[in-house]
């Protein structure tokens, strides 16, 4: 190996001097990695694999990836938090704590931007289901307040409020909104029957979907999530 012969070929890798005199020579072999060192290298690689994996979630030049921001950040934080509980990563716990502090700094900044919640809401895989399952609601808010955090939020209500505010602006302006809302106001059963007969080019799925959308002029976008 290179390290085994480097001292003979090149001399010491560095020297330490005091008052202009050499007091210590450090050989190349001092930097040779032994079995315990390689185990630490592997543990470090395991830790760095997490940000590499989730960074790749945003690497695309063909499809939008904004909807992946919140799930990716939350998943990565969870993985590093789990590593903090494992003794084999103990030597890296200070670095993991610093890394989580940095991630949480940027994660908190998402609170001030509606676009990340809305990007998940309009994605057919996530809609509001991810938020309903992964985020804390009223019970978690009360638990945090009882634990001494007076600023605890009901995050489910926060996200739903973002969606409702956005949809209250968008829904009246959507494509064919005037015609669709007029049909919704005229009908119940008669209106549903007219929808079935209006357009012979529509298939059963299209007609059923339009019936859901026009079932209520005020809750149409909520029906769209079903």
Structure description:
This protein has 226 residues and is mainly α. The chain has twelve helices and two strands, in the order αββααααααααααα. It has helices spanning 2-10, 35-56, 69-84, 93-109, 115-121, 129-134, 138-146, 155-170, 177-186, 188-198, 204-213, 220-224; strands at 14-18, 21-26. The chain has a two-stranded antiparallel sheet. A hairpin with a 2-residue loop joins strand 1 and strand 2 (21-26). Helix 2 (35-56) runs antiparallel to helix 3, helix 3 runs antiparallel to helix 4 (93-109) and helix 9 (177-186) crosses helix 10 (188-198). The radius of gyration is 29 Å and the shape is elongated. The protein starts with a helix and ends with a helix. Mean pLDDT is 81; it is low at 187-196.
């Amino acid at each position: 190996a290179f390290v085994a012969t480097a001292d003979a070929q090149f001399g010491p890798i560095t020297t330490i001097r005091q008052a202009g005199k050499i007091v210590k020579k450090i050989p190349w072999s001092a930097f040779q990695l032994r079995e315990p060192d390689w185990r630490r290298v592997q543990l470090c690689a395991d830790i760095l694999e997490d940000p590499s994996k989730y960074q790749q979630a945003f690497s695309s030049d063909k499809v939008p990836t904004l909807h992946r921001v919140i799930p990716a950040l939350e998943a990565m934080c969870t993985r590093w938090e789990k590593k903090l509980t494992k003794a084999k990563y103990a030597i890296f716990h200070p670095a993991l704590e610093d890394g989580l502090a940095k991630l949480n700094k940027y994660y908190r900044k998402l609170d001030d931007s509606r676009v990340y919640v809305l990007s998940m809401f309009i994605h057919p895989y996530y809609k509001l289901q991810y938020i309903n399952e992964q985020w804390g609601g009223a019970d978690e808010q009360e638990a945090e307040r009882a634990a001494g955090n007076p600023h605890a939020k009901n995050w489910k209500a926060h996200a739903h409020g973002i969606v409702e505010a956005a949809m209250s602006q968008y829904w009246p302006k959507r494509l064919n909104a005037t015609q669709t809302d007029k049909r919704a106001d005229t009908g119940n059963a008669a209106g549903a029957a007219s929808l079935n007969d209006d357009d012979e080019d529509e298939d059963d799925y299209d007609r059923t979907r339009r019936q859901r959308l026009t079932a209520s002029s005020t809750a149409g976008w909520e029906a769209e999530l079903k």
